[in-house]
Amino acid sequence: MEINTAYLESVRKQFLYYKTLGEKAIAQLEPEQLFVVDKDDNNSIAAIIKHLSGNMLSRWTDFLTSDGEKVWRNRDAEFENDLGSKTEVMTLWNEGWNCFFATLESLKPAQLTEIIYIRNEGHTVVEAINRQLAHYPYHIGQLVFVAKQLKKGDWESLSIPKHASTAYNTEKFKEEKGLRNFTDAELKRLK
Fold first, then answer.
1. Which residues touch 9 (CB under 8 Å, ≥6 apart)?
2. What is the mean pLDDT of residues 169-173?
3. Are 36 and 150 spatial neighbours (Cβ–Cβ below 8 Å)?
4. Which long-range contacts (CB under 8 A, 24 or more apart) does 58-67 make?
């Protein structure tokens, strides 16, 4: 497989994995827990999702032809806890991810070295993707952490559970060596 094609497939799987982690964390919560703020300077899960969605819509709309920081984006408002329902939260979540994946799927391997701009700073398409591959999992990690804290011990692990590493590794080493992305197995496990 050509390296640029392999890269696009790999990042698509990585982003899908983190999207799924977020959704599995959200699914463990009661709707009202999406809006909990434990301290004034912390964000609720709903606010984290508003920010992710706002970033995705801004960065990935007209990705190759306009600056990634759109004039219509109000980043500061993304952190206001003003959503009223889980439906509103999940609508924003899906809008952002749908915009992102549609753009990612439309990219051709030859476009990976094209230059795009975010706040007038030039990035290759690869750099722009990598920037978000660090940014989105950062916030998904926050979301998972907050969700786990809200559940107060009544949490279904999204990764290898504590004290289960040996059993997990034993199963993995029973498999034949082969070229595969770890997210393939992880996404199956999370379903």
1. 1, 181
2. 87
3. yes
4. 59/100, 59/118, 59/128, 59/132, 60/99, 60/100, 60/102, 60/103, 60/104, 61/99, 61/103, 63/103, 63/116, 63/128, 64/111, 64/114, 64/116, 64/125, 67/117, 67/118, 67/119, 67/120
Per-residue tokens: 178: 């082969």
Residue 185 has pLDDT above 90, yes or no: no
pLDDT tens-digit profile of 100-131?
A: 999 999 999 999 999 999 999 999 999 999 99
Instruction: Report yes or no: 84 and 35 within 8 Å, Cβ to Cβ.
Output: no
Tell me the pTM: 0.91
Mean pLDDT calculated for residue range 48-61: 98
pLDDT confidence tier of residue 91, bands split at 50, 70 and 90: very high
Contact 33, 85 (CB under 8 A): no
DSSP lists the bridge partners of residue 116 as: 123
Distances from the Cα of 173 to the Cα of 43, 141, 168, angstroms? 40, 28, 9
